[in-house]
Amino acid sequence: MGLIPLILAGAAFVAVLCGVVYLWRIAPAGAGYKAKVLCSAVHVSRREFSAVLAEDVSVDAYWIMRLFQAREYPQWKEVAASLFGMRRASAVYRPGRGASLVYGNLPELPPPPAPGPSSPWAKGETSARLKEAVDRAFAEPRPNRLKRTRAVVIIKDGRLLAERYAPGFNGDQPLCGWSMSKSVLAALAGIVVGKGLLSTDAKELLPSWRGGDPRGEIRLDDLLRMRSGLEFAEIYADPLSDVVQMLFNRPDAAGFAAGKPLKAEPGTLWAYASGTTNIVSKILRQALEKAGEDYANFPRKALLDPLGMASAVFETDEAGHFVGSSFMYASARDWAKFGQLFLDDGVWAGKRVLPEGWVDYCRRPTPQAKDGRYGAHWWLKIPREMGGETAAAAKIPADAYHAIGHEGQLVSVVPSRRVVAVRLGLAVYPDAWDQADFLNEVLDALA
Fold first, then answer.
1. Average pLDDT for the chain
2. DSSP structure class, residue 297
3. For labelling alongside 163, which of 14, 109, 354, 419 has CA 20 to 30 A away?
4. How many Å apart are CA 74 and CA 267, to the nearest integer?
5. 3-state SS, residue 232
6. Residue 274 and residue 178: Cα distance in Å, rounded?
């Protein structure tokens, strides 16, 4: 064999070896992702295992997940996934608590109290123009950038004016909000602050940050505004990045994020990081348990039941912390209730749920965030990938703000127009869903 063929053969061998090593390194998080997503979709969203397997964890950029095998164990409410039988991960569903990845012994928790009654929406008349705008949200004009819209709900003046669901989905079905969960956790933080159990200016928030640790200078306000200064890689396309490892390869998401070192002085640098939200979840747990309150049932008691969000499920990790960055499930109608709460300044059915001033606090621009794009766990501008720098975006009222999640989950609140718009779906590519165009069409139809 000549020299060149030998070199090519050697290069091919090295490439294959590198590929095998890379797959081995990403396998724990890959298996964890597939097991967790499947388990939650089947047991929380009440979907068929085969349907979720065929779409949610295999289409478009998720093609690599096809290498991971998954198996359902209905008798144990468990889903397991592995890479060719190795690097196995398992997720287990607990009634009312959702699905959690299992690393050792998942703590036994009694089911939470049964949800309170669902608050129905008063209904209004759907105009032909609004129906057309909603129908276009389900159209697929670009085969290489599928929207996969699953639910749309439009509220104006507290009345349900339009809703539509994709085949296989319905108005009572809890669907994952992904990072919209951050805005829910911000509401819970507001309630805890309103009780006097925490202050947004509080420092030395965790035991590991005390005793002269420079992270002790991080305030709750810095965490809520994504300017903690902590090192954290929020790169969804990299299975080895902090965000993917935290969510799908660690038993304690908050502990993982809290252990990160500082890369900047607290309060000086804005950097969107899911880890900070989970740290807030841990801080809320400390404050509530110190006051003798029940952290495990706090979201239901303090927020979900008062709003009549009977479908909602807030999942925890194995350590028992609510994964506030990513794992809140609710129906489109119930996500709309959450948006309406903020539209009405934290008041629901005449009763104050959030402390006075908390909605304004969340909507106040964070100075370190470019163009005032972010408040306190709420987006104040639509990101560029979702049409945020288009002519349509320029027409949206300046007071609009948004809860935004992975795969195109959105709750947009437009105070000046008294509108809440919810869209849930599976837009795998960030630019597959244009929220600016959709919201602009809805507002035009309601003009």
1. 95
2. G
3. 354
4. 47
5. coil
6. 10
Query: Has residue 55 got a pLDDT over 80?
Result: yes
pLDDT at residue 20, as a whole number: 62
Cα dihedral 167/41/411/285 (nearest 10)? 160
d(CA 155, CA 445): 13
Q: Using CA atoms, how far apart are residues 130 and 447, in angstroms rounded to an integer?
A: 10
Distances (CA, A) of 113 to 96, 116, 167, 293, 327: 8, 9, 31, 15, 19
Residue 219 contacts residue 201 (beta carbons within 8 Å):
yes
pLDDT greater than 60 at residue 19 = no
Q: Mind listing the pLDDT tens digit for each residue in 185-227?
A: 999 999 999 999 999 999 999 999 999 999 999 999 999 999 9
Distance separating alpha carbons of residues 106 and 35, to the nearest angstrom: 15
| Whether the model pTM is above 0.90 | yes
Distance (Å, whole) CA 136 – CA 130: 10
pLDDT above 90: residue 112? no
Helix (H) / strand (E) containing 79 = strand 78-83
In sequence order, what are the residues at sequence separation of 6 or more whose Cβ sits closer than 8 angstroms to the Cβ of residue 220?
Answer: 189, 193, 198, 199, 200, 201, 202, 205, 280, 283
Angle between helices 274-290 and 180-194 (to 10 degrees): 30
H helices of 262-351, in order, are 274-290, 298-299, 305-307, 332-343
How far from chain centre, in Å, is Cα 214?
Answer: 29
Assess contact for 305 and 116: CB atoms under 8 A: yes
Q: Tell me, what amino acid is at 444?
A: D
| Chain position carrying tokens 């068929």 | 48
Residue 320 has a CB neighbour count (10 Å cut-off) of 18
pLDDT score, position 436: 98
